[in-house]
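Please check this today:
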Amino acid sequence: MSDLAIVGAGLGGLSLALALQQAGQACTLVERAPELTEVGAGIQLGPHVMRRLYGWGLKEALHERIALPEALEARDALRGTQLATLPLGSYCEQRYGAPYATVHRADLQAALLRAVEQGGNTVLRLNTPCSSWVEQHDGVTLELATASALAPGQILAQGEEAATQTSPAKVPLHASALIGADGLWSRVRASGWALPEPVSTGHLAYRAMVPQALLPERLRSQTVTVWMGPHLHLVTYPVRQGEWLNVVVLMQAQDTHHPVTPGWDLTRHPHDMAADLQAAMRGCCAGVRDLLSMIEQWRVWPLFVRDTLAGPDQMARGHVALLGDAAHPMLPYLAQGAGMAMEDADCLAQCWTQTDLTIPQRLHRYAVARWQRNARVQLQSRRNADIFHATGWMRWGRDLGLKLMGQRLMDQPWLFSG
């Protein structure tokens, strides 16, 4: 029997495997993809997340890859004026015990994966979807479907290939508990919880990265900058030790001829996507328009949402628990999707080591400890969408508040101290 099975080897699943490893616990990590890859996009890691990554022994590996922004700036996207600024750097480290960092998702995934592989007590099975699972009195039995001829217990490591079969093999795996870390469209959640499926918000996220060396000096930046305009906003920040600039534009979908469906990615010609952005941002200041004109390649994702968590039973039941987006998908307006998944992982690993409790009690304790914080972050993320995209009097009030109390409003001790 496997001690614990994790479905999904994204940032949340890898974080849980590493946290368990640090606590001396073994697990099996199964992933449907044939190899672990991440899209070319950045993420923000607040001090509450960095403290956990440091605790897992990743400080040296991370500092080879991350950027440490100097400040968080709020700007008016139409006029280009600064509304408020919050110092990061040493201020953040002294106040919260860790820096505020930004990182390329692939770099963070690589650091987590390498640490998991070096630990030696995680069985990683790639190209292995979990087709179904059944809970029993002593655990959970997963049915793993793989197109590769893998014997039970065999590891298919990154980049390794195995002989294929004409039909997928069905390999059972019995575990003392199952953790669904399989994302927004979680099959673990769908099989165990009668909850509504995610629904489209009608918002799109356009993402790109550009080498700062290719930008004129006036467009380069070592800060996290949020440019807010009517019905849209733009976020820029450095990654890869400041050598690249990550750019994200979030706005209401303009093209009704392209329906937003699960897993949808707009695949039209890059020139058309760039033209769409230029048209949508034509009322913005010259700095924003000039930056967008320098970028030729964009990827775009629709944003989906589920109801806010209503109680611990939506995160854990019996021998099964959910983690990260599988439990509580976050809109990106607070930049906390990955952060909350890693907080989940840290908490679950701590609860898992409480061997005086039964396994259902451990998972319930995890859910009780996490659901309210996750729900608060979900709600604040939704509120931020309205604040960032405000129009009329609401926009005027937002700007006035930032000018008068900017640092107080932008600093978030409730989040960063957690």
